[in-house]
Design goal:
The protein is an alpha+beta fold. It has three domains: about 30 residues, no CATH class; about 210 residues, Penicillin binding protein transpeptidase fold; about 375 residues, DD-peptidase/beta-lactamase superfamily (Beta-lactamase). Helix content is about 35%, strand content about 10%. The chain contains 23 helices and 19 strands. The strands form six sheets. Strands 6, 7, 16, 17, 18 and 19 form a six-stranded antiparallel sheet that branches. Strands 2-1-5-13-14 form a five-stranded mixed sheet. It has a two-stranded parallel ribbon with strand order 3-4. Helix 6 packs across helix 7. It starts with a helix and ends in a 106-residue tail after the last helix.
């Protein structure tokens, strides 16, 4: 009864081990039987016929098989990963570099670019410095396959423990990380790094990898690459680094933020410790002896120099680098995109001392005369100036405006749009000396000399070569009546006298008799650009054209160099990765006019300085030639002058804050009329005095005796006679800056930019009385000696 009840309560399907199912007999299975049945299984696991613990322990065959299988799987996975991972494109950020600009003496002017980097060839890095990095980071670099298995296992171990992913990286791996990947700390990035490092050896040599590594590492102080690091820490190019200095730089790549302030004694200890470690490693691998190591230790830690500014583009530097960039693009195959990707070392012609003195002279003039806070007329007054070596064409100084940092981006020295006024007259005279003038219709040109006489009266009609008067529909008579600045009765005066007193009528008539083509060609051969010449009216001959200050200084330099013209240039050489690029030699000089013509023009322009409208320049105290210029309604005023060594042009004008034109400067500085003889000449004088200090005093060549020329009325001219020399007088007082609008940058050819204004625009509108005349009527030219003086008795024009 009891056994029956237990059987009834037993759950279905349960039976005791070793017993048959319900209704059958019981049977025990022996271990031998179990082992025999296990042989029928493909994998005997858990192991049959073993005890409770041993059945779970694999046999040695199973262990070996598992190991072989795992190794095969790993090898297969690695092979698959190796085959599937390709070398990616270079990370664009590693190619971005700075452009470094240098003054004419080779000292650094500025770095321009988002990244402080200058890539160099490995050959430029001293051999000892290369080994500093290898000793510190990867001594087996030249023999290993590009990865370090022990380092990788160490990194994986730390990662498995939940720690930060570590590098365990060789130089090759670090190069791959810097150049092709990113700085993220993830397992997938680490695996990509390993595979690419194994592959990269097939496409790059060890030297190429080391070069790439040195150029892409970050060293602190904002420096990427060893060239930038060398400049940042020791202020020298990498080729001048010592082994000891290289040992410190090799220390910075691990902890740049810690090492960057090693010049501070209180933060130097980590840098010194790491430096000593690198020296020890150099001795350990046999690159230096223990005696050398001890000597370096005795000499002491190579303390980095204090951090320095990369070179700001504030003040005039922005205009200088902009002009140099334009020149590079115009004289090479380097595109704008390539240039702004960086990596160029640009050696300019700009003289730091001269640039500083030119800016200081403008500042003194502003301080003395311009007070925009208290006088509305003084607002928006601009100055542009350029100085050129006439014997080479090298631009040695520019004044572009108040500076990029003050919101003025247009380079006033390298922009057209400001009429040059009477400073154009020397080209009329040069053309007349070279080509003669058709004084009578149908007759051949007559010879012209500075002593040829032309009608200098005011408000006279002008004839062309056919003897016809020039028309002017706005004049009641129907003819052009050219005006001077004042209605003085000069009668017939010499061209020399007309130049000295800046009388307009003789030069307008002379230009018509010489011919537009001849005058234009004379100006072009001297260095002016065709797109800056404006032949709308007879006013062309007295300065309606709008060349830049650079071009005017350079063109006057043609007179200074006895008729040889040298194209203005601002870049002496360009290097990329240590190699000098072609296309940047100083332009060869070309003969623009006979030496006799240039010497005669210089002789006449010396008279302007000695006893004409340019007498304020006499205080220079050495032979100088020059010309003043003022345009209609006093919208611009110029002085351009030169010695045999230096030619400088200064322009002054007033921007219209509401549109792209120019405004009258009447009232500026408290003067009812503003002439080139005053504030522009003051700037010129202050600069030239400083720029030529300690330079030899050179005379101009004597002007040739040209014989008798002809007058306008056909009578022979008297023989020329040399002008007396006037002794020098003291320098005028100078001045300081005023705020200006913020124009857009000038980005066109050297000397041919848009009008200096608050935005790019065409040349300013010109005033006049009709299609032929009056463009430089009242307000143009000068006040003759003996006429009523301007404010403070200053010379006019």
């Amino acid at each position: 009864m009891r056994r029956a009840a237990q059987a009834a309560n037993r759950r279905p399907g349960r039976r005791k081990a070793g017993h048959k199912a319900r209704g059958g007999s019981r049977r025990r299975v022996s271990p031998a039987q179990r082992r025999a049945s296990a042989k029928k299984r493909f994998i005997d696991y858990p192991r049959a016929g073993r005890g409770r613990l041993w059945r779970w322990l694999p046999s040695w065959k199973q262990t070996l098989g598992l190991f072989v299988t795992l190794c095969g799987a790993l090898a297969g996975a690695a092979a698959y990963a190796y085959a599937s991972v390709s070398i990616p494109s270079v990370n664009p950020s590693t190619q971005t570099q700075a452009n470094v600009f240098y003054w004419s003496d080779g000292s650094q002017m500025a770095e321009v670019g988002q990244v402080d980097r200058q890539n160099v060839n490995l050959a430029q890095v001293p051999r000892d410095v290369q080994w500093d990095f290898l000793a510190a980071e990867n001594a087996s670099f030249y023999t290993d396959p590009g990865v370090d298995p022990q380092g990788i296992l160490r990194a994986l171990y730390h990662m498995a423990k939940g720690g930060q992913v570590q590098s365990g990286s060789t130089i090759t791996q670090q190069f791959v990380k810097n150049t092709y990947l990113n700085q993220s700390q993830t397992l997938s990035r680490k695996l990509d790094e390993i595979m690419i490092s194994l592959k990269i050896g097939g496409s790059l040599s060890k030297k190429q990898i080391l070069q790439g590594y040195l150029n892409t590492c970050y060293y602190g102080r904002g420096a990427y690459g060893i060239e930038a690091a060398s400049e940042a820490y020791y202020h020298v190019p990498v080729r001048k680094l010592t082994m000891s200095q290289g040992a410190f730089l090799a220390s910075t790549v691990n902890e740049p933020s810690v090492m960057m302030n090693a010049n501070d004694p209180q933060e130097r200890a980590p840098a010194v410790a790491r430096w000593k470690y690198v020296l020890g490693r150099m001795a350990a691998i046999g690159k230096i002896s223990n005696a050398q190591k001890d000597r370096y230790l005795r000499e002491g830690f190579p303390v980095p120099k204090p951090m320095r500014d990369r070179g700001s583009t504030s003040g005039q530097v922005g205009y200088l680098t902009q002009a140099a960039e334009q020149y590079v693009e115009q004289h090479s195959s380097i595109t704008d995109q390539e240039l702004h990707q960086g990596g160029y070392q640009i050696y300019t012609t700009f003289d730091k001392h001269k640039v500083t003195e030119l800016s200081a002279s403008v500042a003194r003039m502003r301080k003395q005369h311009l007070h925009p806070a208290g006088r509305a007329a003084d607002k928006n007054v601009q100055v542009g100036a350029a100085s050129v070596d006439p014997t080479t064409g090298a631009i040695v100084a520019l004044y572009g405006g108040d500076g990029w940092n003050k919101g003025h981006y247009t380079d006033n020295a390298n922009s057209s749009g400001v009429p040059v006024g009477s400073t154009f007259k020397p080209f009329d005279l040069a053309a007349a000396l070279d080509h003669g003038a058709v004084l009578s219709p149908g007759q051949p040109p007559s010879p012209i000399t500075p002593e040829s006489r032309f009608d200098g009266d005011d408000n006279i009609k002008i004839k062309n070569q056919q003897g016809q008067y020039l028309p002017d529909g706005s004049d009641p008579s129907g003819f052009l009546h050219q005006q001077n600045d004042v209605p003085t009765k000069y009668g017939y005066i010499t061209l020399r006298k007309a130049m000295e007193q800046s009388v307009n009528t003789p030069y307008v008539q002379l230009g018509e008799y010489v011919g537009y083509d001849n005058v234009e060609n004379e100006a072009l051969k001297s260095g002016l650009l065709r797109n800056s010449l404006q032949y709308d009216t007879a006013g062309f001959y007295i300065g309606t054209s709008t060349p830049s200050a650079i071009r005017m200084a350079d063109a006057y330099g043609t007179f200074a160099d006895r008729g040889m013209h040298h194209e203005p240039y601002s870049v002496a050489k360009v290097l990329q990765a240590g190699k000098q690029l072609p296309g940047f030699r100083a332009p060869a000089g070309t003969r623009a006019m006979p030496a006799s013509t240039a010497d005669t023009v210089s002789d006449v322009l010396q008279g302007v300085v000695k006893h004409g409208t340019g007498t304020n320049a006499l205080a220079l105290g050495r032979p100088a030639a020059g010309k003043t210029g003022t345009t209609d309604d006093y919208k611009s005023a110029w002085f351009i002058g030169y010695t045999p060594q230096l030619s400088t042009a200064v322009a002054m004008f007033k921007e219209n804050a509401k549109n792209s034109g120019l405004q009258s400067m009447a009232g500026v500085g408290g003067y009812s009329k503003v002439f080139g003889a005053d504030m522009p000449t003051q700037v010129w004088l202050g600069y030239m005095t400083a720029a030529l200090q300690n330079q030899p005093v050179l005379p101009f060549p004597a002007a040739p005796q040209l014989g008798k020329g002809t007058n306008e009325n056909g009578a022979p001219s008297p023989s020329p006679s040399p002008s007396p020399t006037t002794p020098p007088s003291p320098t005028p007082t100078p001045s300081a800056p005023s705020p200006t609008p913020s124009p857009t940058p000038c980005d066109t050819v050297l000397g041919g930019c848009t009008s200096p204004s608050t935005e790019p625009s065409p040349s300013p509108p010109q005033t006049g009385t009709g299609s032929w005349g009056g463009l430089l009527g009242p307000g143009t030219g000068s006040q003759p000696q003996g006429a009523a003086p301007g404010p403070s008795g200053r010379p006019q024009n």
